[in-house]
Amino acid sequence: MPTVHAKTLQRAAEIVGGEQQLALHLKVTPSHLALWIQGIEQPPGDIFLKAVDLVVDNDVLSKLPSAARLPAEDNSP
Questions:
Q1: Per residue in 22-60, pLDDT tens?
Q2: What CATH number does residue 42 fall under?
Q3: Whole domain around residue 21: which residue ranges?
Q4: How many domains does the chain have?
Q5: Does the residue 22 lie in any domain?
Q6: Stated pTM of the model
């Protein structure tokens, strides 16, 4: 059964466009990331928390109305 670490890292990879992109984002080697996603090893706490932040930020933004996601235009003269 996948661990919470593996599930979170897999979701983060989906958000950023794949495992290669997530490895770059987290500044880790793709081989280490693969071990963590497969549940063979547990990621370091700081790396896991970066992935959690990525997932949470994405989930929060996806729930906002589209107008709230865009910066307001300044139409002042």
A1: 999 999 999 999 999 999 999 999 999 999 999 999 987
A2: 1.10.260
A3: 4-62
A4: 1
A5: yes
A6: 0.78
